[in-house]
Design brief:
heterodimer, A: mainly alpha, about 60% helix, elongated
């Protein structure tokens, strides 16, 4: 069958809360995506400036404060839209993870927003708590009432539209 | 509404059986003689060429004998039918009195007995034949295969002509090569990603166990989502 999970342990783990390693790798991958988008945005800005002003092409250097603000904005927008939609940010999608409400339903937009803000401001370090939590919950899960579960395959459309 | 069941045909009489058997035997004889003639004609025989010119009307003799036998069988069957029809009526009338029936009872009993013996023997013979047929078929098949010169058979196949007749371009156009590559690539990617995910799940369980042991936890982690008590 297409999309069948062959590994028995992995198949049984689907729908359960993910452990520390998976969440940490997913968070790291999301961080890489955010920095890549940040870098891409700077290149696009430099190209637009080159087209408009006719100066030499170079990547803008917004400084530490400006760059941090850009990363925060990009990170929050990316994670918020991902978690409130499919529940998967790009890095989590690679690791087969999904953010859901504590009862397994889709995360609301408000909770997804505050989770994204918290995750970006703490640089994703809140996942360290997963290693010590008895229920594999990160700082963001405890604050926002969410859970990160193993979900390797896409949900049926009926579940996604709920 | 129940469907009417067809009335079974009456069993064939003795004369009918004899007639059919004779016909079948003669038919089989004809077929065998024809087959034997075909086979012998294909086998090279040096002396046959000398007699070929002298054959003449003698070559018609086997066919004529067979035709004569068939005609004789047909006429004999007509006579047997007529005799059987008349004797049956006489026999029925003669066997009607009670004293005759009483006298015939031992004969009837003997007939039943021998009929039963024949039935039992027939069942046993059928079972033996059923066991023997697969062995014979296997033996014949092995002998036939041993006689076939496969190299010669393959050499006779016009591979070049067949290959020339195949329109490779049309076949390639019909195959969605891009789709095949896409499917296989996606499958390969999914396999790789799944392997990484499986490893991370294994590491999740491992780190969880290590930390729980360090924290002196006895109970396994509660990883099922749903309503729960407070965080432990």
């Amino acid at each position: 069958m297409k999309g069948e999970i062959r590994n028995e342990r992995s198949r049984d783990a689907q729908g359960q809360r993910a452990g520390f390693v998976s969440q940490a790798l997913g968070t790291a991958a999301d961080a890489i995506v955010i920095f890549a988008i940040d870098f891409g945005a700077l290149i696009v800005a430099g190209f637009v400036r080159f087209l408009v002003n006719g100066d030499d092409f170079n990547v803008p250097q917004p400084g530490p404060g400006g760059n941090a603000a850009l990363v925060v904005v990009i990170g929050v927008l990316l994670l918020w839209s991902s978690w409130s939609g499919s529940g998967r940010a790009p890095g989590m999608a690679v690791m087969g993870l999904r953010v859901v409400r504590d009862d397994g339903e889709r995360l609301s937009s408000r909770r997804a927003f505050w989770r994204a803000v918290l995750a970006v401001l703490t640089l994703g370090l809140g996942v360290i708590l997963v290693a010590f939590s008895k229920r594999n919950r990160s700082l963001y899960d405890m604050v926002c009432g969410s859970s990160v579960v193993y979900s390797w395959r896409a949900l049926p459309e009926s579940r996604q539209n709920q | 509404m129940p469907r009417p069941t067809p009335v079974p045909a009456p069993p064939p009489g003795v004369t009918d059986v004899l007639r059919r058997s004779a016909r079948l035997g003669l038919g089989a004889l004809g077929l065998v003689s024809r087959a034997a003639g075909s086979v012998f004609a294909r086998v090279p025989d040096g002396s046959a060429a000398e007699h070929a010119e002298a054959a003449g009307p003698l070559a018609l003799l086997p066919g004529a004998v067979l035709g004569l036998a068939i005609e004789a069988e047909r006429r004999a069957a007509t006579v047997v039918d007529a005799v059987a029809e008349r004797t049956a009526g006489v026999g029925r009338r003669a066997a009607q009195p009670a004293i005759v029936q009483r006298a015939l009872r031992p004969v009837e009993d003997a007939l039943w007995h021998w009929n039963e013996v024949a039935r039992r023997e027939q069942t046993r013979n059928q079972a033996q034949a059923a066991a023997l047929i697969p062995v014979i078929v296997q033996q014949v098949t092995e002998n036939v295969i041993a006689q076939i010169d496969f190299v010669r058979v393959i050499e006779q196949i016009p591979v070049d002509d067949i290959a020339g007749a195949i329109d490779v371009e049309a076949i390639v156009q019909r195959i969605d090569l891009g789709g095949v590559i896409r499917e296989s690539t996606m499958g390969l990617t999914m396999e790789t990603v799944d392997a990484v995910r499986s490893q991370s799940i294994a590491l999740d369980h491992f780190t969880g166990r290590v930390v729980d042991r360090l924290l002196f936890r006895k109970q396994p982690r509660d990883v099922e989502i749903g309503p729960h008590e407070h965080e432990g």
